[in-house]
Amino acid sequence: MATPTVLLIVEDEATASKALRMKFEKANFQITIAGDGEQALSALKEKKFDVVLLDLVLPKKDGFEVLTELQQQKNTTPVIVLTNLGTDNDAERAKSLGAKGYFVKSMTPMKDVVDFIHTLLPA
Fold this sequence. Notes:
By secondary structure, this protein is α/β, with parallel strands linked by helices. Helices cover 43% and strands 20% of the residues.
């Protein structure tokens, strides 16, 4: 069996993070959950992740602040934004801060997010 992809899910809503965990574990991902931006940044300092799935609306530090800090730290872990903020301005801002993808939760099947993550990973 292939080595699991190590994924950090940054999501403050417990029901959403539980659903994401179940979906990604079925797709052979090893999951760590962070409930706010500060937890996410701490986790990224402590452990190597293959990918980060980042909400933008978070307590303590929002997703834009997390992206900014990762950019300043020259952290190259691919970040994919999964949020309910659906404006083009938010998507452009996130991508300008280094996000590799931007998905709106209510408009995106999780399978599409899983497939996109696989395109980011080395074969």
